[in-house]
Amino acid sequence: MAAPKGGFKEKLRIWLLPLVIPLGAWLVVFFTAFLLDAHGQLSFLHLLDQPNPTAAANTLSNAAEVVAAVLALAITVAAIIVELAANRYTHRITELFMTEPVNFVVMGFFVVAALQSVVILLIFDQPGGFVPYWGIGAAIILLVFSLLLLLPYFAFVFHFLNPVQIVDRIRSHTLKAIRKRKPSIADRHAEAVRGVEELADVALNAMEHKDKGVSMASLDAMQAMVLEYQIVRAELPESWFRVEGELAHNPDFVSMSPDVLGAVTRRRIWFEMKVLRQYQTLYNEALNRTRDINYVVAINTRHIAEAALNSKHEELLELSLKFFNTYMRATVNAKDVRTAYNVLNQYRLLAEGCLEHQDGRRALEIARYFKYYGLVSFNAKLPFILETVAYDLCTLCEVAFDRKAPVAEELLRIFLSVDREGENDVQETSLRGVRKAQVKLATHYLRRGAEPLARLVFDDMARESRERLASIRDELMAVRSSEFWEISDRGVNFDFLDAERKGRMLEFFGWFSDLRPPGIVAPEVQAALPPSIRPEGQEDLLDGPGSGQDPATAADA
């Protein structure tokens, strides 16, 4: 069993301070009173070395009762607190607490102190003149420390039952069980599954009690478990990766067809799938209720996928993508736009990581998933998700171009195929957002000197209504702040373009020969324009509500 985290300072806080402070206070009180009583006529060391036998016997006769009472108090308090914690989070707490060596040491110390006090009285032979001074001293010292040990032990119990500490112990215990060589594979499978499910239970129960911190700690522990498991998986025997026997009857695997179980075995990913299945369960429970849990699930899934990228673990990366898609499907079905807004952000960051690792094929795959779920959301009357998809694809295309990725042009083609005609005013507003994102990307290409790519965007817009294009241009020109005017999770204004990019935007719209000229152009934008298209005498624009839109905020409204 792994020791609690915190090192020396944590142990000092839990054990030494609650022990030393009462001990020091008692010594001050005792010696102050003794000096006042003795007036320098009696030696404390002499009295301690040769105590009065009758007084010592009377003291020892009560010492055993005192120690027994202390032991009973410790057991009662610990039992009540452990039971409460077990009922609130997971029954595993009881097992972990009972197998903790500290409990055996402390309870054993109380028992030894009581036995010493009882037995020493039996050999007290006052008529014969035998007085066991050393035995009396040992009994008194044990009695003193039994009383002093009570506060540190309670501090240890409360620290041990901290739910975050319990989560860490379950994680450590599970990984230790996986590494063991002596138990059978079936027993190690059972212990691994048990640990994952208990962490998920802690997270679920904490969600029910609104303990978001504990839920997030459990999610982080499951992520850490997967990442640490990657280090030891190469040392595990082939039989560990087979999904058979009791493992195949686990609720997360029992419904799978033999072909699917065979594929899981071949890919050697049952443990990772088990963890991500628990993530899926928690994600579904949190939709429209505890969105922070959804965000942490998405973040941790991305971290697992990025670890797979770093280690070139293709099977785990593919599995992570499938679960990202599963999250998106559940989010659309639950009509939870804000969660989709944040999950898409994590999914895009994963695609950027693929580009960083020169894995353009995966980046294209993710872009196609973006397009698919954007259109699914659009058809489900959730058009703001499509708008978010558009801006994320815009960012992905920019990153791909800047990294000179071979798939940059293919990503652009996927992006340009996202928009379609709207059926109502809300959907039309969303599709305007898609066009704005495409225009934003064109300005990036022009700024980087890639006019042929910007021309592809122009060709895609050639048949658009000129009035619609003009209004899109004017709305983008009106956005002056890079931050959205309300609190949003991403903290950016999707429609913001700096002065240079606004100048490139006017250059882009200048290709539409029949488009009416812009009504107002800010001076800093005029300065960024090529001289051939720079207008004169224009006034500045004012920023305000309506200039830019955060999809999730608009959806909540």
Detailed description of the structure:
The structure is a single chain. The protein has helices at residues 7-38, 44-49, 53-88, 92-98, 101-122, 133-148, 150-160, 163-179, 185-208, 212-232, 258-267, 270-286, 291-311, 314-334, 337-356, 360-379, 383-402, 408-416, 425-447, 451-461, 466-478, 499-509, 523-528, 551-556. By secondary structure, it is an all-alpha fold. Among the domains are: 7-161, no CATH class; 178-334. Residues 1-5 and 537-549 have low confidence and may be disordered.
Write the layout of secondary structure elements.
Blueprint: H1 7-38, H2 44-49, H3 53-88, H4 92-98, H5 101-122, H6 133-148, H7 150-160, H8 163-179, H9 185-208, H10 212-232, H11 258-267, H12 270-286, H13 291-311, H14 314-334, H15 337-356, H16 360-379, H17 383-402, H18 408-416, H19 425-447, H20 451-461, H21 466-478, H22 499-509, H23 523-528, H24 551-556
- What's the helix count? 24
- Helix content percent band: over 70%
Overall pLDDT score = 84
Q: Which structural class do you get from the secondary structure elements?
A: mainly alpha
Number of strands: 0
Strand content: under 5%
Pick out the low-confidence regions. 1-5, 537-549
Largest sheet: none
Name the overall outline.
elongated
- Could you state the order of secondary-structure elements as H and E? HHHHHHHHHHHHHHHHHHHHHHHH
Rg calculated over all Cα atoms:
35 Å
